[in-house]
Amino acid sequence: MIDHVSIAVRDLKAAARFYEPLLTTLGFTRLRDWPASIGYGKKYPEFWLNERKNLSAFGADNGAQNGAHVALRVREAAAVDAFYAAALAGGGTSDGTPGFRPEYNASYYAAFIRDPDGNRIEAVTFTAAK
Which residues have C-beta within 8 Å of that of residue 10, sequence separation ≥ 6? Predict the structure, then answer.
């Protein structure tokens, strides 16, 4: 069982501006502030941003497989959709629009985004196809 995850970002303040609206759609709030880390969660910090100023750029120049991949479980498809919209509005890029992924599972509904540091973040729920 995973207790929490951390991802590396080059600019902690910029990453917080990107992630706060995005994580709010999942019910997470900012719970902990440290000089080089910020923790978000529901009851305790489950998702951490860790500043690494010497982090090399992950983006397309270095290949699409670079960066971390984190999947966050949500309760319903509407939360997946809201997560995706907030990510794009905040400067993220699409890495997979909201929808069913039958190649994984018939009820797997997810969206994938890339943050400004190249990390791939997914929101997923399991629901019946409409």
Answer: 51, 52, 53, 55, 57, 117
Q: The whole model's pTM is what?
A: 0.83
DSSP annotation of 41 reads E
**Residue 17 backbone phi and psi in degrees, to 5:** -65, -35
62-80 b/e (C-beta count within 10 Å ≥ 16 → b): eeeebbeeeebebeebebb
Q: What is the pLDDT of residues 8-53, one digit of tens each?
A: 999 999 999 999 999 999 999 999 999 999 999 999 999 999 998 8
CATH of the domain at 29: 3.10.180.10
